[in-house]
Write a structure and sequence with these properties.
Blueprint (H helix, E strand, L loop, with lengths): L4 E2 L16 E5 L8 H9 L5 E5 L5 E4 L11 E9 L10 H7 L5 E3 L9 H9 L3 E4 L6 H14 L6 E5 L5 H14 L3 E5 L6 H8 L2 E3 L5 E3 L2 E6 L2 H8 L4 H9 L5 H6 L8 E5 L4 E2 L5 H19 L6 E5 L5 H9 L5 E3 L1 H4 L8 H7 L7 E5 L9 E5 L5 H14 L8 H12 L3 H15 L2 H7 L2 H22 L14 H10 L12 H22 L4 E2 L1 H4 L9
Parallel strand pairs: 6-7, 6-16, 7-8, 8-9, 9-12, 12-13, 13-15, 15-16
Antiparallel strand pairs: 1-19, 2-5, 3-4, 3-5, 10-11, 14-18, 17-18
Helix pairs in contact: 3-4, 4-5, 5-6, 7-10, 11-20, 14-18, 16-18, 17-18
Length: 550
């Protein structure tokens, strides 16, 4: 197989025995490239257009724009196609960039417990991309400090802060919204929601006001991350009256805001979350994204919003091919997650970054989630180098089988206290009580006379701390590390193998993002050539890592 270009063999086509050219190309011979490296250099120059030409021998190559005034130097070749310039900033829906003040339709999704750190948010914001601070699982004071840091570095944005649904701890969701309103956070990423809540509705509606021309000013933007059509529908529709009336009666929104709420959707953007790290339904993006886009189109016909809700893609985004594939299916923007945790700016430990950089696409497992443990909700984590997935599942099995700690077989109790808790059950409960006294005292009250509820909180102690141990690199707890990870991590590692980005110490979030976007734009040029019957060789199809642009 050639490493350059080929044209299809259609010699059996009676009406077109040879792929026709579109005319003649005239220019300086020095702009011609027929070798693999020469062609690649022209293709990688995304800001310049070039021309596909064929010489007298039938060889296909690329030519540049430079002409010549000397007729003796003029080359005259058959012109096959013109390849326009196409840069990373052209990928996706331009209104996404306009709304959030971005250069690229690229977002880093929130990873809880500050893994999507303030440093990560700032780095991408300064590079013209959006990132969401991982506020989930953090106490209010820690969230406020992070917001202060981000706002000091990005006073005009772009940045977002995560609001994670907390069905077991409603107070956390309420306090999060109160912080966002007090701190003037203008964009939030709402994730893991099973349905709308009064808190997320309050945030949205409290930012509405009417412009002088009668249009609605949306002061609080919401990017909702969903994996189910029924949840997507709730965020694409206006806020329900059942939420607006109690909020109005409580004085949390005005009558004017309640009226305007009927004119706008609950979210500006819907991120379709496919097979991702953390909370996920493991759904394939090629099925889920088109379904949500179709749903959006149907609801847009019904509500006729001035700006339709945009639909982005997340889950499995770890290579240029995946980025281009998402945009080709109609995604307005792409969202990455797992790959960012392996970067220097993440809130993870060096140990976690190292094992993530060694992960393959199959090195993941589903495990019970700490925040929705009693509901049996699971999330995707790394299984390589840790026993967390198996140990967490054991806790869920025991919780489902028994209503009280004393009912658990003695052998299992002793094993848990020795290997997971490394303390007595009663002592761990004291730790839980002290923790929830600051975080959500209502949890203690609900568990005092409910043995099963108490057992759930103790088990959640392990599930919650396992992530914190991983983030701070707790020595001796390596086998208990909870590391959120999807198959995109392995795909990314495979792509960068042999390059400078194979080493986690060289990974920076903005550099990784630009590599992905530049690679997707490069591949889009090859796809454009396919439409003109020009096939690129295997060497040209491989996207190579460029010099650092971080």
């Amino acid at each position: 197989m050639t490493d350059t270009f080929t044209l299809p063999d259609i010699s059996n086509c009676l009406t077109c025995p040879h792929p026709p050219g579109t005319g003649r190309w005239f220019g300086h011979p020095k702009t011609l490239a027929f070798t693999s490296e020469g062609i690649r250099q022209k293709l990688e120059d995304l800001s310049s257009r070039c021309f596909v030409v064929r010489d007298e021998s039938g060889a296909v190559g690329l030519a540049g724009n430079i002409g010549t005034d000397n007729p003796a130097e003029l080359a005259r070749l058959e012109l096959i196609a013109m390849l326009p310039a196409f840069q990373p900033g052209q990928l996706g829906d331009p209104t996404f960039r306009q709304t959030y003040g971005l250069q690229y339709n690229y977002m880093a999704g929130a990873m809880a417990n500050g893994i999507a750190s303030a440093e990560l948010v700032i780095a991408l914001g300064k590079a013209g991309m959006l990132a969401s601070f991982g506020a989930g699982g953090l106490v209010p004071d820690r969230i406020e400090r992070a917001i202060d840091t981000i706002q000091a570095a990005l006073p005009d944005g772009p940045y977002a802060v995560n609001l994670i649904h907390s069905p077991s701890e409603e107070a956390l969701e309420r306090r999060g919204v109160e912080i966002f309103l007090r701190k003037g956070v203008r964009v939030i990423e709402a994730s893991a929601f099973l349905a709308l809540t009064s808190h997320v509705v309050r945030y949205r509606v409290a930012g509405l006001r009417q412009n002088p021309d009668g249009s609605v000013h949306i002061g609080h933007r919401i990017i909702a991350k969903v994996s189910r059509l029924e949840v997507a529908a709730q965020f694409i529709q206006p806020a329900p009256e059942s939420f607006l009336k109690p909020l109005l009666e409580a004085g949390l929104i005005t009558a004017e805001q309640a009226r305007l709420a009927a004119l706008v959707p609950m979210a500006d953007d819907i991120t379709v979350e496919a097979d991702s790290g953390g909370h996920t339904d493991n759904r394939p993006l090629v099925c889920l994204l088109p379904a949500v886009v179709t749903l959006r189109d149907q609801l847009q016909q019904q509500f006729n919003y001035p700006q339709p809700v945009r639909v982005g893609a997340a889950g499995g985004i770890g290579t240029p091919e995946a980025v281009l594939g998402a945009f080709s299916m109609g995604a307005a923007y792409v969202v990455t997650g797992s790959i960012n945790q392996s970067c220097r700016e993440s809130g993870s430990s060096d140990h976690v970054r190292k094992v993530l950089a060694q992960a393959d696409m199959t090195d993941t497992i589903m495990a019970p989630a700490a925040d929705m443990f009693e509901m049996g909700v699971k999330l995707q984590v790394l299984k390589k180098g840790t026993l967390f997935g198996l140990r967490a599942q054991k806790l869920l099995d025991l919780y489902l089988a028994y209503d009280n700690w004393v009912e658990v077989p003695e052998k299992d109790r002793q094993n848990l206290e020795k290997t997971l808790f490394r303390d007595t059950y009663d002592q761990i409960w004291q730790h839980c009580a002290a923790f929830f006294q600051e975080r959500d005292p209502e949890q203690i009250v609900r568990a005092e006379n409910n043995p099963k509820r108490k057992m759930a909180l103790v088990f959640r102690w392990y599930l919650g701390l396992s992530s914190a141990w991983a983030n701070r690199g707790e020595a001796g707890r390596e086998l208990d590390y909870q590391i959120w990870c999807g198959p995109a991590m392995g795909a990314f590692n495979q792509w960068v193998k042999g390059s400078r980005l194979e080493n986690w110490e060289h990974r920076r979030v903005a550099d990784v993002a630009i590599q992905l976007l530049h690679g997707a734009a490069y591949l889009s040029r090859l796809q454009y050539l396919v439409l003109h019957g020009v096939q690129a060789g295997a060497a040209l199809k491989r996207v190579r890592i460029r010099h650092s642009e971080a």
